[in-house]
Design brief:
It comes from Lophiostoma macrostomum CBS 122681. The longest helix has 71 residues. The chain contains 24 helices and 2 strands. Helix content is 72%, strand content 1%. It has a two-stranded antiparallel sheet.
Length: 523
């Protein structure tokens, strides 16, 4: 029996060897496949976590941008309201009205009666200015001081130094000042929104990268005593998670709030005077005519052609020149202004300047200015001055009977709305204009590309990601964020690519990649 079994095994040993080899190869192949599947699952899980983390951080960052704009906007508003004191002009017009009344009916009867001869268009226009309380606190104090009737030699000397303006001159001043103030605040709000998006998204990108590096780095031995490391090999400092650098970088918004907005005010005022200068405040104009005049002002400020808009330089209004950076840091409360020369801060400022000078910035600025001016003219002035109801299904029948294009209103009545809306534009709470600006999808797309592009700019020479899968997940997450946000734009990828073409920076390249991917999905 044993001999027979041995002979059988000898005869079939080749078959057994082949079978064992097949089984071994099959086992090894199976283990290899299972390993690859497990690796793929792990990579997909890391990419999904990275995408969710990046998206969550990005959305939180945009909310922070909104709160930041609302917090610092009143500073610029205060400076612009003080620079264009419309309420003081209104006070002078009221004095003219009071003097005319006293001459017509006598001092004893001026307060109790007013004859029909003096209840004219000027009186109605002044009433429209007084229909709502909008006088700024600082200007109210100044107005009260100016409304006191000085007596004696001091009053005569003051009259000699400052000749009294006529009613026509005051109304023309009121016209230019009220319109210029509202337009300047719109430009300031739009530029402040974009500057804040750039600043906080650049810092958000650096903090996100710092967290990724921290997770990817191998754990180190924890000692019982932890000392702060301010050396260059500190990952948090190397990747930009440095509080002092971030604080100094954010303080550069001081320039727009205190200097840039006033420089912009002069440019806007010149444009308003050229366009609205010959318009009579008593004249009746249509809303379409007012929109055309507003567009003419925008053309003079922003540029009349695509090429002029593309080459318009907004950087001097947003950031100081390099030789004035130390002054800005000092004025904004930084104790050590020498930090302006640090490499980390210098890199942030330079990248911000490049973004502001990019065609993308001008494109997005044009879109958000369209939304802001439309809310002012087509919504607020149309409803409050021209009494045009808001467009809705319930008002469609009314608009069939009364054509909004035929509605007319006196320029003086619109000036009153301009004055009141200036305070609404510059308010730090429940700002409808900021809501209208942030509803522009191009703004969110611009922020997404800033947040998810140029990661290599933040990588220190001595540092690197420890795991290849982490780098892959980072790139995939950034690409996903750009594609998901940029791909949802209503204006169309073709026109956007045409408007934003011609730049070789990483920012423009990332935008182009996102658009290309979206086009590929569409086809």
């Amino acid at each position: 029996m044993i001999t027979t079994t041995r002979r059988w095994l000898r005869r079939n040993r080749t078959n057994f060897a082949i079978g064992a080899g097949v089984l071994g190869a099959g086992y090894l192949a199976g283990q290899y496949v299972l390993g690859k599947i497990s690796e793929a699952r792990q990579r997909m899980s890391e990419e999904r976590i990275a995408k969710e983390n990046l998206r969550r951080r990005f959305e939180q960052n945009q909310e922070d941008c909104t709160f930041t704009v609302l917090a610092i906007l009143p500073t610029a508003t205060e400076n612009i309201l003080d620079a264009i004191p419309v309420e003081q002009i209104l006070d002078e017009l009221q004095k003219h009205k009071a003097e005319r009344l006293s001459r017509s009916v006598g001092p004893s009867e001026a307060a109790s009666s007013a004859p029909p001869s003096v209840t004219d268009d000027d009186g109605k226009s002044l009433t429209s200015f007084q229909s709502e309380s909008y006088v700024h606190a600082s200007q109210m104090a100044g107005g009260e001081g100016s409304s006191e009737s000085p007596t004696g030699e001091g009053a005569e000397g003051s009259a000699e130094r400052k000749p009294k303006k006529s009613k026509a001159q005051l109304w023309n001043e009121m016209k230019i000042s009220s319109i210029s103030r509202a337009f300047t605040l719109l430009y300031t709000l739009s530029l402040l929104t974009l500057l804040t998006r750039i600043q906080l998204n650049l810092l958000g990108r650096r903090n996100y990268l710092a967290s990724v590096v921290s997770l990817a780095s191998p754990p180190t031995q924890q000692s019982t005593i932890s000392l702060e490391n301010h050396d260059d090999d500190n990952f948090e400092h190397a990747y930009g998670n440095d509080f002092e650098t971030n604080r100094r970088y954010l303080s550069f918004s001081w320039w727009l709030l205190h200097r840039g907005c006033l420089n912009l005010m002069h440019k806007v005022t010149i444009a308003v005077r050229e366009v609205f200068g010959t318009l009579n405040p008593r004249e009746e104009i249509t809303l379409e005519k007012l929109s055309e005049l507003t567009l003419e002002v925008r053309k003079k400020v922003e540029g009349a052609t695509e090429e002029e808009r593309r080459t318009c330089k907004w950087l001097p209004y947003l950031l100081p020149s390099q030789d004035e950076e130390a002054y800005v840091l000092q004025e904004s409360g930084m104790t050590d202004s020498s930090a302006a020369a640090s490499s980390s801060l210098r890199r942030l400022i330079d990248e911000t300047s490049d973004l502001i000078d990019s065609p993308s910035f001008t494109h997005v600025l044009t879109h958000i200015l369209d939304a802001a001016f439309s809310h002012l003219v087509d919504t607020k002035i149309a409803q409050l001055s021209y009494k045009i109801p808001p467009t809705s299904a319930s008002t469609a029948r009314v608009q069939e009977i009364v054509n909004p294009a035929d509605a007319k209103a006196k320029v003086a009545n619109s000036l009153a709305v301009f004055c009141r809306q200036a305070h609404a534009i510059g308010t730090g709470a429940n700002n409808e204009y900021l809501t209208a600006i942030e509803s522009v999808r191009d703004l969110e797309a611009f922020a997404a590309v800033v947040y998810s592009s140029n990661f290599e700019f933040e990588t220190p020479e001595a540092g690197s990601l420890s795991r290849p899968t982490t780098a892959t997940g980072l790139d995939s997450a950034a690409d996903s964020l750009r594609t998901s946000v940029v791909g949802g734009l209503e204006s169309g990828t073709a026109s956007l690519r045409q408007s934003w073409a011609g730049a070789d920076s990483g920012f423009e390249s990332a935008w182009g990649k996102a658009l290309a991917k979206e086009d590929g999905k569409a086809h």
